[in-house]
Amino acid sequence: MTETHVLLIRLAGPVQSWGVASRFARRDTHPRPTKSGVIGLCAAALGLDRDTPLGELAATLFGVRADHPGVPLRDFHTVGGGKYPVRPRDLATDHRRAAAMEAAMGAVEDIRSDSGHSTVEPFGRQALESWYGAPKRIAADPVSGTLVSAEVRRHPMVTERWYLADATFLVGLQHADRTLLEGVAHALEHPKRLLWLGRKSCPPTGQLALGVVSGVLKDVFETRSLLPAAGAPSTPSAGTRTWAWIESPQPLPGVGPVQDQPVRFDADGPEHGLRWETRHRITIAPHASEWDIIP
Question: Mean of the pLDDT values across residues 128-143?
């Protein structure tokens, strides 16, 4: 039987976000790291281009143990608010905006005449109240024939984004090629590109690569203590039971399908395939190895 090895990766930070079905108005997060997100993290550390085949990196078996699952955190963002200055091209190409600006300037001139001093902003800083500055739904105007925005009024959109706060996960990548895993471990500690936990606003903290050990994912998870939580003292974890999700190389009874196998990370959109995964209740062994890391 071929000997296998497991690269252990610590994923911890103030917030994480592992999207599965995110859309613009609502960005969700999976309750644990996804394989595509972790492989993307490793690919960035290695400096791979988006169109580079993932090869054996994607062929690793993936497992994640929820040492500290964290708590869901919801954040709201407002898009489309604020004022936008009118540009010369806006007046030249959009007769509606030019007419509105002419009326606004006339009102300012009347105020200046009555008060005796100027309140006119320099051109380039003037904004039209309740008019949206960025073009949307561009189409030919029936009057002038030029391309104008069909939506000129301000309609701010509230977006909803979900995160995991104060979570710590132990991830394992299993493969027969120890050299491959050691190369990934070195890259995680000396990354060629910026790393984040699922989203660019979620940088990782502390040490990521925790070494390469011989064995299979389930056995390795059982013989390693729980990772210390950030800001909390490490406590003995022998006998503690936690959940782990471990990839199966093939479909078997009791193993569920997951649309999370990374195929490529093209700029036009990532592509994922099907993989199989099962959930295990992990009991930390009495002789489990302790961690000598800074959380």
Answer: 69
